Predict the structure.
Amino acid sequence: RKTFDVGEIVLRGVSKIFGSNIVAVDNVDLTVNHGEFMVLLGPSGCGKTTVLRMIAGLEEVTSGDIIMDGKRINDVDPADRDLAIVFQNYALYPHKSVAGNLSFGLKLRKTPRPEIEKRVAHTAKLLGISELLDRKPRELSGGQQQRVALGRAMVRQPFAYLFDEPLSNLDAKLRTSMRTELIKLHQELATTIIHVTHDQVEAMTMGERICIMQSGRIVQIGHPLEVYRNPANAFVAGFLASPSMNLIDAVLNGTEAGLVIEAGGTRLPVPDSFADSYGAHRGTACTFGIRPEDLHTEAGDENHVPVDVDVVTVEALGPETVLIVSLPDGKEIAARLERAFSAPIGSRLRLYANMNLMHLFEKENGRVIPVPRR
């Protein structure tokens, strides 16, 4: 594509090599739409932060192009990119007050004083920190410091915001509330946000689209629920959500009655509607995937297949109960059940796998074998 839409941030064949042979980012193509909340998700070392830093201009691009609002910005100084970054450690000036931290960038840009005061007051009100303007960072809680770091970025009214794991230093309860605040802020500001995280819950709840990375490459991009329901490969299936999809070494065999998956020491009939998709893989080793919430204590339709398991642990979480159970061959898997469920550790239990929602991945490369979904 040679033309670019207004407001887009586009990466075309972007790579980053450190030293002589350490490939941190490998030929990444990505388009972030104007006003979109895009989440870059992946494990430590996958290249997501390096992508963010190249967009910001804090890392040089080894090859490829970064285009912002239709203009190539590879050689544009970071200060001239009109991007605001919020880091994991907040990076507040300890000797300046909250008001001083919020206004510092505007003063450097020689913004008129009345405009600075107006923006600082508006941003502080939006973030609920108006009463903190005279305090120093050491007098603030972690959540308050995080709001100040966000505010320092917001007062600039930049082209886009770049968030590098800004919630990772907060405790669990505060992290949950700040996710909500960031979503509300995005709706209020209607500005592009690129948010880097390794937290699957953050990605699922905050992103309009998520971009999952592995070993410097983009593995899958899509709406959170679409990626959740239709993972492109076993890596995505095993990384997204917690507890993640159960992945079990398996063999796909055929019988007179149809296809059967042999996995974990048990036999699981495959729904007839999947036969055309899976038929070519008959007799091959593969990886069988089923999510913990697709294991039930009662059968639904004829494609809910019984599986006898032994209870290893019971995690009563309040809204739900997560079981760790072992299959006949000893393989341990997770099951997400209703909140009232309980079972003695070591007891034998019959669960029903909803094979309508099963996944099958090629053993050699991990790619999903696509099937029609109801």
About this structure: The chain has a mean pLDDT of 91. The CA atoms of residues 157 and 245 lie 40 Å apart.
